[in-house]
Write a structure and sequence with these properties.
This is Transposase. The protein is mainly α and 132 residues long. It has helices spanning 20-30, 37-44, 48-59, 119-131, and strands at residues 101-104, 110-113. The protein is elongated.
């Protein structure tokens, strides 16, 4: 009779977080002439594809490989009724269920955007309208 080995893993492994300096150092080590990237990855417990991704991000000129997403929170209020903006200044309401976000600024300006809005363009428009 033969026995098979069974390994029981308890808990969950947490995702490792690497600083930009660590990533740059590992990429530099892995892509030196004569070095095999997969051996460097194995030695550091990484998947070799991660080294290639970090190298591509560095070559594309990103300030840091895999930058953390910027998170900006703004207060949100769910209104029971539409804001009191004169009808002549309001655009017609879109059909229900189209995923429209309406932003009403303290100045009275109202913007409606859908999920396809370019975040950078929206940021610039909001910056201009907040100054008025």
């Amino acid at each position: 009779m033969t026995y098979q080995r069974v390994e029981v893993i308890t808990g969950s492994e947490k995702r490792r977080v690497y600083s930009a300096a660590d990533k740059a150092g590992l990429v530099a080590e892995a892509f030196r002439p004569g070095v095999v990237a997969s051996e460097v990855a194995r030695r550091h417990g990484l998947n070799v594809s991660l080294l290639y991704r970090w190298r591509r991000q560095i070559e594309e000129g990103q300030a840091s490989p895999s930058p953390e997403p910027a998170v900006n929170f703004v207060p949100v209020r769910i209104a029971d009724a539409p804001p009191s903006i004169p009808n002549d200044k309001m655009a017609p309401l879109p059909p229900a269920g189209t995923g429209i976000i309406e932003i009403v600024l303290p100045s009275g300006h109202c913007l409606r955007v859908d999920r396809h809005v370019d975040a950078g363009a929206l940021r610039r428009v909001l910056a201009v309208l907040e100054r008025r």
